[in-house]
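Postdoc handover notes: sequence design on the structure in folder B. Input tokens:
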């Protein structure tokens, strides 16, 4: 395999929502700790070299909807990818197809985890945005012309940055595009015993009009009761869609 092993790791409410008012409850707080320890703790179950997030998730958690400070007169940047740090212990891989995120630093800290930022762009990103990333020392790869090419992205993460295991960390739009592309190997969900009933919050998987809603199938590997009544489920992908079948 030339691509990384990909596991999708998420915390949800009982109704499969990945954000909303329920996040402020004690139940979500305990489940959030379980979630963190499994993939980022001192002795984690999953050991990975990077985790991947969609543009909305990054804006909500790290760049806080800031505008990037662009120089529209920047000299043309060299074609292709930019590898600022080829050997970071951990990468934060940020899917930002058009180049919209207002980074201020090439590194970030998520609780106790430090990581180098690695932006994933498409041909839609401007020269000014790529010059902005170079100025900050933020690595980037181009994965696709108009649309994100997930397979190409994974190859580049392995070849250019040595990422052997990658956590797919949401949100729902990004998660579903990997499932649809058949490029997610394992699903790990920590379910908190709480829900808020919101119709507006994103769920674990979202097509958002980008991908099809053909069902995909999962095979349960383990189910464990964790702290505070949370439940940890691990599935492998049973790569068989029901498209075109009647059962
Ligand atoms: N509970 C958890 O474990 C957990 C984990 C992560 C996130 N979250 C929460 O989830 C919420 C965000 O989820 P979300 O589903 O709304 O958004 P998301 O997946 O974080 O971001 C969606 C955006 O990412 C880009 N993108 C993702 N997949 C793409 C694809 N296949 N092709 C092209 N572009 C793609 C697009 O950016 P552009 O719009 O720029 O084109 C798209 O609009 C946040 O509130 C976050 O805090 C929860």
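Designed sequence:
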């Amino acid at each position: 395999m030339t691509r990384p092993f990909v596991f999708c790791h998420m915390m949800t409410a009982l109704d499969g929502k990945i954000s909303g008012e329920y996040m402020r409850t004690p139940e979500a707080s305990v489940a959030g700790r379980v979630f963190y320890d499994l993939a980022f703790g001192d002795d984690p179950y999953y050991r990975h070299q990077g985790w991947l997030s969609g543009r909305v998730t990054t804006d909500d958690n790290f760049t806080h909807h800031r505008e990037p400070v662009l120089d529209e007169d920047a000299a043309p940047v060299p074609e292709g990818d930019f590898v600022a740090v080829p050997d970071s212990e951990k990468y934060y891989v940020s899917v930002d197809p058009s180049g919209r995120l207002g980074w201020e630093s090439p590194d970030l800290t998520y609780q106790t985890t430090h990581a180098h930022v690695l932006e994933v762009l498409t041909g839609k990103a401007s020269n000014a945005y790529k010059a902005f990333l170079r100025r900050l020392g933020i690595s980037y790869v181009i994965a696709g012309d108009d649309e994100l090419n997930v397979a190409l992205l994974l190859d580049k993460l392995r070849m250019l940055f040595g990422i052997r295991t990658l956590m797919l960390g949401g949100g729902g739009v990004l998660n579903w595009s990997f499932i649809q592309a058949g490029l997610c190997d394992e699903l790990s969900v920590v379910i908190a015993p709480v829900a808020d009933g919101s119709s507006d919050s994103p769920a674990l998987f979202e097509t958002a009009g980008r991908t099809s809603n053909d069902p995909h199938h999962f095979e349960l590997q383990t189910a464990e009761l964790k702290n505070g009544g949370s439940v940890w489920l691990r599935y492998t992908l049973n790569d068989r869609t029901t498209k075109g079948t009647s059962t």
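Context for whoever picks this up: Residues 50-163 form one domain. Don't rerun without checking with the PI first.
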